[in-house]
């Protein structure tokens, strides 16, 4: 387990800011203590310092996970965000999408969101903007990327994709093995 | 709205148009209910009357010809027939029935023809029935008639042949099954009495038949024991000869159950052997026998069979239970040891049925009320779990898969057994504590701890199985638990890796005898070796868990040990071991329901505080079998075993190993055991320096003093506990009083005497 290098930190924050913008500061300085990111086996973990103190006693091959896993770095040093980060990103999300109940199930299976399933979308969403997908009951369902800007969404036909799927909570059941 | 029934209306006959119209209700009904119009007899046309008469004469004539032939005549009932209600009958039916009845009645003798003739003549005109009523009543009477007459001759022969309608012999009534009450209504005696005052043979036969029926009903209910009965015919006491014996024994049967003899058991063994070839033991009879034996054992004094001991009954029961519920012999024996007879069968039955699905609300993300509402909207039928749980819900049925709802995926709840919630309730973790969960997979209990702590403090969740850790990671992330470190390590390494926890939860790996309903393979693949191996690992784990706790913790110092097993070797025994080996005591779990743990079991005696542990069973609490014990550690010191004579280590036990003392103590130990009276001085010198600190403290204590005692004690160094125990008690008492400095507050409950023994020896050497 080691702290992130500069490069890695930059990549990570770049990715995160796509979804939550400048609220990253809120992630680090929280009222209940300082939190930090740590790298362990190519995965980024977000932990508070108290937990970190205890975790350093565990050897590398025995440590499996600590705090919350945000995602992992691929072999080419790109950062891939995992669904496990949803709880932290959802409250700070800048751009959100609400999905109709019928399309909710489809999204949870890993499909993209079509115009017909789109309930609401925040204004001024650019194309390829990072989004957090919600259900109509305000339950966060996952992450996505806008395929069309808000303006275009209004014009386009019902069968076209408006949100590319990136991660959804159905993965807890579908991809249990890859979480670790 | 239907047509009205008007009995005065005449039915139109003939080829005209009016006859083709739909007739009134009364005539239509008459076609369907043969009895409806039969009370008064039908008004027959001349030709119909002739036909009826011809039929009757045929029926009478036939038995006359065949009087002496073995095949009886169905139409002897002509006598009785006429007195009965008759309905319309297709001409063909009679013949068909005759064919049926003819060969079947091979055994029966025909009824005496003259009596039947008489009756027929007297009644023939009155009834004027068109046809014979081959419906139930008549055939029954036919049966009765034959039966009555022939029964005298055939009583003995027909005992073994038993027919479900209460009729003996070869008399079959495949067409008609008569409810008993209708039969009685149309008993020949009813009608015959009105005509002839004296008792006709038919009446005698009827009465006899009634008596025999009553007996055969009893015989039917105790048929199984019947077979065994015959097996035991060799025993002179049970019956004399078959014919009389059967009846008598039938009566006794109701009171007493008889164990099968070797013959019967051989038969069964043959049957069991046949399983391999495709045969099967008769489960019905086995089940019946189980119930009988349980009944006998319950009231053994009066119900027992003479000459049979209780152990014979018990061993028979054991084999039968093993056969019926498919258990291996070892496990069924264990279960029979634990449960009294009244609960035994209930427990086994409960293991065949799965427990209800329960889930636990994740209070980090939602409330139970809201979750219940959301699930009900999805079509799940659920209820709160009970008074003892504020977050549990039990699911009765669901139209959607309960493990894949959006609420599940959003981490609002987790599927968890009711008994798995109990250890965490017993542990009662507080906020900002450091908790260790030694065997955490699949993470249900860990997440419950986190939710009770509201994501504060730190939890170290450990498991030895890497595969199952994946589900821990998944569950904890899904439920939004952020204060957890997940590690993959053997639990026995624990205090060495990191220690000083406030509380520890140990859900030890066990044999799984409490969750047989989830995994039926446990019934057969567990044996003594498995249980002992499990118990050994559990003891090691529990000692490590105890050593990982900091007794001086402000809010904690508790260890909860739980297993999903019901055997005493894995539960009370392990707890007892820990009580002896470490400075812990049992405290109440905080669970107000559940059965108390055993304080004695067969030949073993456990510490009385074991009453505060709790056992749960599937048949009493409708949750998986479970055992929970809560310890409080009152001292970080580790009491030494009797072999070594070093004082308990005053510092925290960070480097404990099973059975070994802390390293400091080891050094002290080394010179001691080898001490002989001659070389006493040398080690004494060495020891003196080490014990300088302690000696000053102890100098004021009890004098030991003579060379004799010293020599004795010197020799004792080589031997084990025996000699130490021979020391006079007052010495020990003295030491107990004088050693509060080195040990924590001692509990009044029994500590091993060994802890007080080392000091006297040390003091002696120092002084001399």
Automatic annotation (TrEMBL), chain A:
This is 60S ribosome subunit biogenesis protein NIP7 homolog. InterPro entries: NIP7_N (IPR040598), Nip7_N_euk (IPR055359), PUA (IPR002478), PUA-like_sf (IPR015947), PUA_sf (IPR036974), Ribosomal_synth_fac_NIP7 (IPR016686), UPF0113_PUA (IPR005155). Residues 95-170 form the PUA domain. GO terms for molecular function: RNA binding. It comes from Monodelphis domestica (Gray short-tailed opossum). It is found in: Nucleus, Nucleolus. Pfam families: pre-PUA_NIP7 (PF17833), UPF0113 (PF03657). The keyword RNA-binding applies. PANTHER family: CYCLIN-DEPENDENT KINASES REGULATORY SUBUNIT/60S RIBOSOME SUBUNIT BIOGENESIS PROTEIN NIP7 (PTHR23415). Its main location: nucleus. Belongs to the NIP7 family. PROSITE patterns: PUA. Interacts with pre-ribosome complex. One of its GO terms (cellular component) is cytosol. SUPFAM superfamilies: Pre-PUA domain, PUA domain-like. It comes from the Eukaryota. The gene is NIP7. Keywords: Nucleus, Ribosome biogenesis, RNA-binding. Required for proper 34S pre-rRNA processing and 60S ribosome subunit assembly. One of its GO terms (biological process) is ribosomal large subunit biogenesis.
From TrEMBL, chain B:
Residues 1-162, 210-246, 641-768 are annotated as: Disordered. InterPro entries: MeTrfase_RsmB-F_NOP2_cat (IPR049560), MeTrfase_RsmB-F_NOP2_dom (IPR001678), Nop2p (IPR011023), RCMT (IPR023267), RCMT_NOP2 (IPR023273), RsmB-like_ferredoxin (IPR054728), RsmB/NOL1/NOP2-like_CS (IPR018314), SAM-dependent_MTases_sf (IPR029063). Residues 667-678, 704-716, 746-756 have a biased composition (Low complexity). The keyword Nucleus applies. Belongs to the class I-like SAM-binding methyltransferase superfamily. RsmB/NOP family. Residues 132-160, 221-232 have a biased composition (Acidic residues). Residues 10-22, 44-54, 679-691 have a biased composition (Basic residues). This is NOP2 nucleolar protein. PANTHER family: 28S RRNA (CYTOSINE(4447)-C(5))-METHYLTRANSFERASE-RELATED (PTHR22807:SF30), NOP2 YEAST -RELATED NOL1/NOP2/FMU SUN DOMAIN-CONTAINING (PTHR22807). GO terms for cellular component: nucleolus. The active site is at residue 564. One of its GO terms (molecular function) is rRNA (cytosine-C5-)-methyltransferase activity. Transmembrane segments: none annotated. Residues 347-634 form the SAM-dependent MTase RsmB/NOP-type domain. PROSITE patterns: NOL1_NOP2_SUN, SAM_MT_RSMB_NOP. S-adenosyl-L-methionine binds at residues 439-445, 463, 490, 507. Coiled coil: none annotated. It is found in: Nucleus, Nucleolus. Residues 55-67 have a biased composition (Basic and acidic residues). Gene3D superfamilies: Sun protein, domain 3 (3.30.70.1170), Vaccinia Virus protein VP39 (3.40.50.150). Keywords: Methyltransferase, Nucleus, Ribosome biogenesis, RNA-binding, S-adenosyl-L-methionine, Transferase. The gene is NOP2. One of its GO terms (biological process) is maturation of LSU-rRNA.
